[in-house]
Each structure stands twice: as structure tokens, then as C-alpha cells.
Amino acid sequence: HHAALAAFHLNRPVLVRLSRPESIRMHPKRHRMRLDYALGCDIEGRLTGLFARIVGDTGAYASVGGEVVARSGTHAAGAYFVPHVDVVATALYTNHPPAGAFRGFGVNQATFAMESLVEDLCRQGGFDSFDFRRQNALAEGLATTTGQVLGPGVGLKECLDAVKADYDRARYRGLALAIKNVGIGNGLEERSRVLLRVEPDGRLRLIHGWSEMGQGIHTVALQMIRETLGPASEAIPMDIESQTGRETLGGVTTASRGTVLLGLSVLDAARKLKSDLETTPLTDLSGREYLGEYSVDWTTRPGSPGPVISHFSYGFSAQLVILDDQGRIETVVAAHDGGRIVHPALFEGQVEGGVAMGLGYALGEQLLFENGRLKTDRLGRLGLLRAPDMPSIKVILVECPDPIGPFGAKGVGEIGSIPTAPAAANAFRSFDGLRRDRLPLSPIPGRKPEPDKGDGP
User: Do 209 and 242 touch, CB atoms closer than 8 A?
Assistant: First the structure.
């Protein structure tokens, strides 16, 4: 965007090339947060109340600091039903580099806090960790932190049940659950508009306004066209492109919403074409364009009267981290409810990538400052995991169709990284009994703890 602004004002081509230190210094990072939690349950192990005060360091510039820290507050109780909540989340300007949108968008931090206290309650009350979570897990008819009562399509307990066999076999293990909104919600209208065009050579071209950045949204969109048109469409060549010059709409690729919103607008266009094909051959439709649209305008703003609908959909997951006898992470079992799973390989890839990011966040990633300045500006010194550091990842696909999503699909882009760090912390606690209340986790069994030489990650 700096290059675009400079080119606009100077009326000449502009190249901006950042060195690695410049890139690390200026690009937004995940928010540092301090979360003060108090969580209670009754003698039967049912959660009764949560008190939470969350402070997020948004750095010298806002970026989306308010929105990220707000999302940590709306997900403060994690994937559990807590009948009474008192939550305040505050974003503060500081002299640190800016923090902004990062995979999980503030929910990772809140889930780490909540799952740590759930583990505390299990130990203090003598409750079985698995049974306690299942008893308190969100389900249809129960309310989230914001008070939104969930409808059909909540596969959280199915995810938990899917990891039960591995949980029972493991000696050292850690569990964590997660919920993550699909869509921005909170009263913001979200729209998607596409064009499906019949080309003169008989091929179909889909034009949309979403960003394909390797997550597979092009593949999913074409699959939905073929699913709608039926088996005969396998013989029709199809192209797809992302552009905004034809009044197509998508918006920011965030909140795991691309599959749902793009998919629903694609279905609208494909159904119109299918209707015409019932009476007219494809060759006679050359040049015809079909507009597909979908809009979500029924979520509610915080504090507005009436029933709360913070988001139009949610994803759910349960992750289990298993250690070997030396305390090293051996396997991560990740069960995720993606609604109707459109493309299993892409789904698994999203979850595996999320687990990798979650483990890096848990085990090593640390951006240290001294007097507000970075202590290191080299990528290799930031604690990122390398390929040889990764354990085995077992992805379990759970299908609990969403009543809104295209063919029942949900988004899965962000939730893969959210429960990993607390699951790892709980696994290490099962090994050595030590409670860990900050990230990155330390001490890690089998590793020498590294001293904190700065003023915080």
C-alpha cells in the first residue's frame, strides 16, 4: 500500500522493497495480551461463572487492534457454556511495533487462558478432564460468551468424542476445545457477488472478488458449480478469476468466511444457469451472464435490543497433544467440525497448517523488546518451528452440517491454530505437574529453559 500511495501522489512508478529487518519491524504481529481470569464451578463440575479482564497491546498504531481485542472478549469463555460472565477487553496504544490481524484474531489468547483454568478446576475438584469438558461443552440451545443461543450445526461434542480413543491410550496428554466465529458479524452487512459467464467456446467462467492466496477457494467454488449442475457438468471446461472490475464483491479474506459467502453466491448463479439449461442447450447461451449474490444482514450489534446474533456461523474443534515418555510432543490429534467438508485434502491441509502455527506460538515464537525496540530483527531468531520440529499430526474430519453454509459447509481457516497452545500446555502439565501461564511455554520437558532477556514476547 505504500507503493500504491506513493505512485498515486508522484504520478510515476514506485517500487518499495523491504529488508528483512524492516519487514519484521513494520508488519503487524499477534497481540500481546494479559488476561486476568477467575472461573468457578459447582460441586458437580458444572461451570457457574467467569470473570475476565483482558488487556491487549496494539502497539503504536491501531491497525485492527480494537476488533482483535474485542474478539478475545466475545470468545472469553471459549467453547464452554458459562451461565454468568463478566468480561471487559481493552486495547491500549504502546511504544511497541503495531499488532494486527493474525490467524485466530484474538481468540488464541482467550482460549489459552480459559483452557488453563478449566484444567485447574479439574485438578482442584478431582474431575476427569475429558468428562468435565464434555459436560460443559457448547451444544445446540446453549449460549456463547456474548449470549448468542446456538442453533443446529454444533459439532463440538462430536469432535471431543472423535479424540476419545487416542485420549484413553495416551499416558501424557493435554486436551483443549475451541470455538471460532465464521464471518465478521456484529451487525456488519457481509455481501458476496459473482458473475458466471458462458463463453463463446462453450466454457464457463466464474468471476468473483475474493482473494485466492493458496487456501483453495478457487477449487471449492468450481466444485460447488459442478455439484449444482450435476454429473453432466464434468464435460464442461471451467475457468475462474478474481477481479473487482465487474462489480464483483468479496471483501477482506478474514474470519474464515470465504467458503461460506463465496459459496452461497456461487450457488445462486449456478442455480440460475441450471434453470436455463433445463430448456436451452449450453451452446445457445453463449454470452449470457448470471449474477449470483448473497448477503448476511441479520447479525446484531453489541448492545442492541432483542436476541443476540453475534455471528451467522461458528466452527468447533477439539485437539489432543500427546507426549512420549521423555516429555516430547509425539502426536497432535486434531478433530474439527467443518460442516459439510467440500474438499477433504484442502481441509486437512488447513488444519495441519493451523496446528503448525499453533505449536510455534506455543513452543518458541517470541518477539523481544528493549525500551520499545526489537532486540532481534532476524527471522531465524524469532523461534519459528522448522519442518524437523513438527510432530505427527492426525486430522479427524467431523461433519456437522451448518444450516446456512453452502451444502452445509463452514469455514476452517482460523480455528486450526486456536486450541493447540493450551493443549500443549496441558500435556506438559500432565508430564511434570507444572502450571504454565504464559506463552511461549517454559520450561519444556527435554529442553533447557531460555532466559527472558527482554521486556516480554
Answer: yes
Low-confidence ranges of the chain (pLDDT < 50): 452-457
Chain centroid to CA 429: how far? 25
Q: Is the peptide bond before 440 cis (omega within 30 degrees of 0)?
A: yes
Looking at residue 105, what is its pLDDT?
Answer: 92
Q: Is the dihedral of CA 159, 161, 165, 169 positive or negative?
A: positive
Q: Which residues contact 204 (CB under 8 A, 6 or more apart)?
A: 196, 197, 198, 225, 236, 237, 238, 239, 273
Is residue 382 within 8 A of residue 426, CB to CB? The reply is: no
Number of neighbours of residue 149 by Cβ within 10 angstroms? 12
Q: What is the Cα–Cα distance from 47 to 38, expressed in whole angstroms?
A: 11
The predicted pLDDT at position 453 comes to 47
Q: What angle do CA 99, 186, 340 make, to 5 degrees?
A: 95
| 219 contact partners, CB below 8 Å, separation of at least 6 | 343, 346
| Contact of 215 with 328, CB cutoff 8 Å | no
Determine the pLDDT at residue 354. 96
**Rounded Cα gap, residues 80 and 177, in angstroms:** 8
pLDDT score, position 405: 94
Q: Give residue 455's pLDDT.
A: 44
> What is the helix (H) or strand (E) element at residue 177, kind and residue range?
strand 172-182
